[in-house]
Amino acid sequence: MNVNSASGQSKAFVWNRIAGKQRQPPARPSFGYTEPSVSRFNQEAYDFSMEVKDSKGVPASVMQEEEKGKEAERARWYTDTILQAELADYSPVKGCMVVRPYGYALWEQIQKALDQMIKDTGHSNAYFPMFIPESFLKKEKEHVEGFAPECAVVTHGGGKELEEPLIVRPTSETIINFMFAKWVQSWRDLPILINQWANVVRWEMRTRLFLRTTEFLWQEGHTAHATAEEAEEEAQRMLGVYREFAENWMALPVLTGEKTENERFAGAVRTYCIEAMMRDGKALQAGTSHFLGQNFSKAFDIKYQSPEGGLEHVWQTSWGVSTRLIGAIILGHGDDKGLILPPRLAPVQIVIVPIYKTDEEKATVLERCQQIFAELKPRFRVHLDQREQYTPGWKFNHWEQKGVPLRVNIGPKDVAGNVVEIARRDTGEKVRGVSQASLVGELEGLLPAVQKAIYERALAFRKENTRQLANYGEFKATLEERSGFVEAHWCGSSACEASIKEETKATIRLIPFDWQPDSGKCIRCGGAGKTRVVYAKAY
Ligand SMILES: [Zn+2]
Predict the structure, then answer these.
(1) What are the sequence ranges of the domains in the chain?
(2) For domain 101-333, which CATH number applies: 3.60.130.10, 3.40.50.1460, 3.20.20.70, 3.30.930.10?
(3) What is the number of other CB atoms lying within 10 angstroms of the CB of residue 94?
């Protein structure tokens, strides 16, 4: 692992080495940290305090000022956590990010697990070009209105102006559906179940590492079916896959439901989503699945001959999750010391740190460490940190920042007693005197225990921070004082939704699937509401 990192801490360390001494790194900044971060190339391209800046010139109350301060600290914490854990770095291109090896290893773990789930539900991977003829985007009216403002357009190639400009894909519905029109003739050609792992580009004005970047990595599923029912079932099935992935792999509980018309994907009939609560109480949309109806099949003329001999347009879905999931893991589990990674996705699940002072101790401790490393390697993603230029204390801090779930410490006394010490990242608890013979069993028990504990902590936090309210004054005060989810009735009007957003910055995150009809009055206008919806401020 390369430690000549972006963080000020490692720079301080390098400086101390040059000065001929080694010191412990300074304590990690907490949420109360206000000292400016290391000045970095192109850092100004990132807005650290997105939500803080849209003051409308109204004199802010003391409470709002406090809230802004907290918001800025949280934004700083988020950025510092990413830089110090070496997940990503700023790129020389505005709004883009460089995913560093540790961050990419985490993305690979995400890909590996999710790719298998996508294949297990009958889909195959394919790859389509990143350039899309401009005319394609214009074929579906809502789609072009939604995406045109954030498209990057290629006008020149090979030293010449292109006859038709090319769009760098913001999403691939148009080019994939152009191909589907070629491939589908008969009902026998259906369904088509395709997934693509790719990069996409959306020209964002305000960007934030992992959460919103101009170029990001994702998977996008695209399917075509003979009937509306089949497509609807597919859209919900894939939302279920995302839910299972978020809860079982990322250890993040999510709500599932439908987006309102305002928040719907451009070109979809219905957009379903999973929403998670972050440690600061804000919502994060972690994945979406769309029932596209026949909007694209009509625009691209994707028709099939039915068994009865008639010509019908296909019914479609699309669904995706992106590198934003890494942002969700950081914000959903992290603490003052940095990242906390769920064991099932952590690139390094266990790190072994040798502890010794004399050369004699070094020889015996390293030998034991190597022996244990060899024993654990076939079973776990394990790393032995035997670098000599860092002290054990420095290493403890380093691997805590990186969120490694378990650390095995081995010193001379442990070697003598044939035992080791295990430290948990999530709770800080230490299990001392674990016999070498029982180590594998102990670790096999602890990894799922950590996975479960951080899931349950996130679930308890969401429960504590979810309120049911019926009074608009209370609703406004609640969203102003603290974040969190508010469940309240909505009459279904876009005007109420828009004025709530204007007045509180909260949006309707979703209309939950599984709630019983529960009539009440719209929190904004008092009109009849059929069910409660979930309001929150969101990333
Ligand atoms: Zn209303």
Answers:
(1) 8-98, 101-333, 350-456, 466-536
(2) 3.30.930.10
(3) 14
Q: Please tell me the least confidently modeled range out of 284-298, 406-420, 506-520.
A: 506-520
Residues with CB under 5 A from ligand 1 (ion): 491, 493, 496, 522, 524-525, 527
Residues 219-230 pLDDT 10s: 999 999 999 999
How far is residue 258's CA from residue 232's CA, in Å, rounded to a whole number?
Answer: 12
User: Residue 385 corresponds to which tokens in the numbers above?
Assistant: 């940190």
CA of 83 to the centre of ligand 1 (A): 44
Alpha carbon distance 82, 95 (integer Å): 16
- Give this prediction's pTM: 0.88
Q: How far is the CA of 489 from the centre of ligand 1 (A)?
A: 8
Residue 523 Cα to ligand 1 middle (Å): 7
pLDDT band of 63, cuts 50, 70, 90 = low
DSSP state of 338: B
Express each pLDDT in 316-328 by its tens digit. Answer: 999 999 999 999 9
* pLDDT (average), residues 160-175: 96
Angle subtended by helix axes 101-120 and 228-244, to nearest 10: 140
